[in-house]
UniProtKB/TrEMBL annotation:
GO terms for biological process: phosphoenolpyruvate-dependent sugar phosphotransferase system; trehalose transport. The lineage of its organism: Bacteria, Bacillati, Bacillota, Bacilli, Lactobacillales. The keyword Nucleotidyltransferase does not apply. Coiled coil: none annotated. This is PTS sugar transporter subunit IIB.
Amino acid sequence: MSYKDTVQKILDVIGGEKNVNRVTHCVTRLRLELKDENVVN
């Protein structure tokens, strides 16, 4: 699976790009601050 495919799958389950307030990362984690957590599948 490519990085592009992985990103699209993540966006699909979190309600899309418009539901993201902020993204941060470290070596082992991707942290997402979402506008509406109830949209997450």
